[in-house]
Model the fold of this input.
Amino acid sequence: MLGHSPDPVRLSAPAGLKLDALRSTLSYTSARSSALIWEWTPFCLVASYFIFSTCIYMVCSDKMIEVFWYVYMLTNTYVSMVTVVEAVLSISATREARGRVTKIAANDFKPGTGPWPTADEQLPIIDLLIVAYLPNERDIIMDRVIYLCTKIVYPIDRIRINCVYNTPITIEPLETELVDLQDKYSQLRVIKVPGSKSKADNLNHFFTLNTGAGVIAIFDADHYPHPHNPRWAAERFMADADVGIVQGRCIIYNSRDSWLTRLIAIEFDKIYAVSHPGRAIMMDFGLFCGSNGYWRADLLKMHKMHGEMLTEDIDSALRAVKKNVKAVHEINAVSYELAPSEFQGFWKQRLRWAQGWAQASLVHMPMVWNKPEQGTRSFTKRFGVFSLLAVREVSYYLITQYTCLVLSFIILNFPKTPLAFARMIFFPYPLSVWFFVISIACLFATLVITWRVRSEFISVWMMICFSLFYPFYLVVMGMIGLYGHARQVVAYNNWNPTARK
Done:
């Protein structure tokens, strides 16, 4: 008896399943390999840069080495002198800010007197936004919202506290608890932005709402604005109708958490209380810095945030400069924030900033030579933009090239004593002493001025440590800048939000 012929479908089914499984495995392996290569390509580019540069210096003639060395020293001297000029110019802004505080304190911080001439009922209505990515800030958001609702000193009928957040997953009972807070605090509004994937999406959604506010303030979720913060900003708007942006001072309050937070805390004091006010005077423009910034509402709603930019706050600041929007720095509008306490968090945050600055610099560099859309752009402002964008980005290469030059010295002629090492790095040529003295004098003067405006979280010991570690800190920042450029080259766009706790 002849048997039944085999069923071709039954025979092919296992083979088909095996083929599908193989394709799936190959597809997964290919995707993982591609992602791995994409992830590590920036590292390989930066590593190759250091190795190649060091090797080049090792085979250069003595005359070429001398030329390179003088170029690096001259540019370093230029940057040091610009920095100290900014610091010196900031003294007048600091003196004025302290004078206003003294007058207000003498009047027991009562409205309608001294530098606070505006009556409560005449103050602008402020929409104060705290922007949050809930999964990352779930542990702090309730505390910050309650703080803003209870500690801010501003007429309650003229300020709205808006918690604008997004989350890819429902987080309960936190979301319900946030919504319930609206019953307790009449000035609070909790807004969940559907479909949002970024801070820019959250902000742009809020800009579509008709709130009737005259000023919009933007804060990240880790900030504790000083109780009088909004009042300082409001008075600047009331004093000058041409002011479109008021940028406050950000202070690191967890400076004692680690050696890293100590460095960042002093860096922030130097940036927000010295460099920004000094640059605004010297270069004729101020900058919105992403958080603790106040905008006239109609201006910001038209301006919007460009979500396609990696750091939409830097882009928005430069677009405001491009439009000749007047931005001022109010040192008294203080807000306290967290700094990453571990190097991994710091590295990820600064890499994102570095790539964002690189992208924004490429987009906005033409304003150095282009005709402005409205009004005029002075030579001073053009030079300031060139210094902020071009010199800033090139400085990463100058710092790291000098590092590679020193490495080549050490490899070819390893110093046997600390004195020989110092002579090799700082005094290899006749004019070395002058470059060294000028750089040290500029650094010392800048730090002295920073010390005068330091926050309450900075000690003498911290300043001494910062002075000793600052050269190495600059090298690390140069490496991060190069890494950001490498990521921009490969179009890297995977972001990890800064951890909050």
